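Exercise 7. Predict the structure of DUF4407 domain-containing protein from Flectobacillus rivi.
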Amino acid sequence: MGNQRITASDLFLGGLALLLVSVSFYQTWQGLEQIFGHAAIVISLALSLLLLYLCWLLREAKLTGRPTGKLMAVYSFIALFCFMANFNALYTRFMRTDIYTAELRDINARFDKLEADVNAKFNYKYDKATAQNVETKKKQLMEQIQDKGNPGMGNRARMLIKDLEKLLGQKVDILRPVGNDYADLADRMGRQIDGIVSDLSPEEAKLKTDLSAATKKWSDKIQEILLLPKKDKDEQAQGVIDQSLAEYNKLGQKATNILGEEKFKFEPKESNTQDIGKIGYAFDHAVQNFGVYQLVVLLGCILLDFIIPIILLLVTKPGDNNNNGGSVFTHKRSGNVLIPNN
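Solution. The predicted structure, encoded as C-alpha cells:
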C-alpha cells in the first residue's frame, strides 16, 4: 500500500472549515426558523454538509487540474441561502434593541407633533406666540401639581400661576384638590387655563385634553421602557408600540373628524417591527439604514460562507499531491520501487 500523510495544511484548513461551517449551521438554523419552524435545523444541517462536501470536491478538482467553475457555481448557489439566513440571524440579534428604541422614540415624537399640529388649528383669543407660551407654562404647572416630592399648590406651582396670569392678563383661580387626587387637580387647572386661552367647542376641548393626556402617558411609558435592561426592553417593546400606535391613530382620526379634512389631514402610522426576525425585514432595514454596522455584518456573512472555498482555490495547485501540501485523503505516494540484487 502507498503511504499517506496528513500535513499541517490539511489539519488547519479542515479545522477552519469545520469551525466556520458549524457557525454558519447555527446561524442558518436561527435565520430560517421563522420560515420553516422546527424543520429549520434539518435544512441547515443539510446545507452545511453540502457546503463541506463541495469544499472537498473543489480541492480534489484543483489538485487534478479539472475545471472548478461549475462546482463553484453550485457552491455559491447553496451558500446564498446560508448567507441570507446568516444575515437575518446576525442582524436581528444585534439590531433588535436598536430598532425597537428608534421606533419608540419616533412614536414619542409623533405624539408631540400631533398635539402641536392639532393645537395650532384651534381658534385662540390670543396671538400664536402667547398661546404657545401659555401652553408650555400650563404643562409645567400640571406636572408640578403632580410632583411626588411637592404635590399640590406649592411655591413653585404658585410662581407658574403668576407667570400665566401675566401672559393671560387676567386672574387664574387656584383650585383645591379633592382628597389627595392631585392628578384630578392638575387636569382641572389645565382645563381652566384652556378655557381662558381658547375659544373651543366642547368636542374640541375634549380632543385637546385627550391629546395632552395621551402624549404625557406614552411619553412616560416609553421613557420607562427605554430605561429597562436589553432583554426586558426587547420583550415589552412590541406591546407598547402596538398599543401606543393604536391610540395615536385613534386620536389623529378623531382630530380629522372634529376639525375637518380641509383644516387637518391625518395619515395613520403603521409599524413593521412585528416583522423583526423575517429575512425580508432584515435586508430592507439594512438597505434603508445602511452604515458601518450594516457593512460589517454584510462582510462578516460573506466571509463566513465563502472564505474556505476562496482559500482552497488560492493555495491548492494542480498536481501538488505528492506530499507537498496536497490532500492525503485520496492520493497515494508515487515513485519507483528499487529491488536490490542478491
